[in-house]
Amino acid sequence: MSKNKKNKNQAKKIEKENLYPAWQIDEFVKHQRNKKWYIIASIVALLLIIWAIIDKNYFFALIIILSSALIVFYDGENPKKIMVEIQHDGLFVGEPFYEFQSISNFYIIYKPQEKIKKLFLEFKNPLKHRLSIPLEDQDPVEIRKFLLKYLKEDLEKENEPLSEGLSKLFKI
Question: Mean pLDDT for the chain?
Fold first, then answer.
């Protein structure tokens, strides 16, 4: 690649970054699990399956089996990098585009001592799950300022949702 072409690409990138915040994140969180985790998880899964069969709740047993298989299957996968880009009418998180009209509010949890730096989006549609986006090297104050132009902020949220904390704790 010629030096001139490289400079033009860098200029376009800088120009784009000045217009809209954009960064890369991992597609999913890859937890480091040791043998002990797998032994405990297998025992818990086996006990839940036995309990489900004794209780004649075969659907629950099937859910436990499928969940276990998915965890094992995805454990071998490495997360792909996806682009997050906030624009004037919504945001891209990889391929999907989320319009601001469909989002009821946002909040940012930034706790450097706990290594938490995330943007959360809640949707107007109650069937849509909350979206959690790591902010990586982005300045949370700048992201907040940008989003306040388009969305309402939920100032009551001061901690990560329970589901996020449990996911980290149990490495799932």
Answer: 87
